[in-house]
Amino acid sequence: MKMPTLRPVLLIAAITCLTFVGLRGTSSAEEAYLIPAPVTDEANTATSATAVFAGGCFWGVQGVFQHVTGVTNAVSGYVGGEAETAVYEKVGRGWTGHAEAVKITYDPRQISYGALLQIYFSVAHDPTQKDRQGPDVGPQYRSAIFPTSPEQERIAAAYIAQLDQAKVFPKAIATRLEGDKPFYAAEDYHQDFLTLNPSYPYIVFNDLPKIAALKAIFPKEYRDEPVLVGAVR
């Protein structure tokens, strides 16, 4: 595939989103590993629910969850700030309060909130980095969970405590629980970026290893055909 022709604003996005996230400190999918599942999980019989996770550049986080069975949509966006500042150029300056995040719509009958958390902490990003992912520095790249219900907040808090107590990671988890806040979808050119630009250097280096790790570590949850924002709209 040819390198995509990017408009100037997307070139800026590519530069500021260039993060050596890796998986547990490396970009190799082979060195990622399965962390324990949550002891506490939801008992949700609804047909649809939402989860909002932030973990660095949203291209890779969106790409991971688009390949998860039971996820019906995953949208890149901004959360934590005001509506008028939910614009890429403003968020990228780090003063808006927003984090780059992904809003995940899922079927709780197929995958639980706890299972989504396990994938989030295992392969979607490095939860031990505070206000950054690799060299991408700033609160807009923070590791944060935005629970959409008291039950989600309880499950996420218990899981973070469980993982820290078990010393699963070499450092304490930096992921913040920030409560239910309005989510604003990112610009169209950010949506489905991983799938639409698989040869883009940033995607090849940082994000395709996450997809490979998802497939290797969570084979039952992995699906080869991603659910795309463009297909859902």
From TrEMBL:
It catalyses: [thioredoxin]-disulfide + L-methionine + H2O = L-methionine (S)-S-oxide + [thioredoxin]-dithiol; L-methionyl-[protein] + [thioredoxin]-disulfide + H2O = L-methionyl-(S)-S-oxide-[protein] + [thioredoxin]-dithiol. Has an important function as a repair enzyme for proteins that have been inactivated by oxidation. Catalyzes the reversible oxidation-reduction of methionine sulfoxide in proteins to methionine. Pfam families: PMSR. The keyword Oxidoreductase applies. This is Peptide methionine sulfoxide reductase MsrA. It is an enzyme of class 1 (oxidoreductase). Its EC number is 1.8.4.11. The gene is msrA. Keywords: Oxidoreductase. NCBIfam families: msrA. The active site is at residue 57. GO terms for molecular function: peptide-methionine (S)-S-oxide reductase activity. The keyword Acetylation does not apply. Signal peptide: none annotated. Residues 50-200 form the Peptide methionine sulphoxide reductase MsrA domain. Belongs to the MsrA Met sulfoxide reductase family.
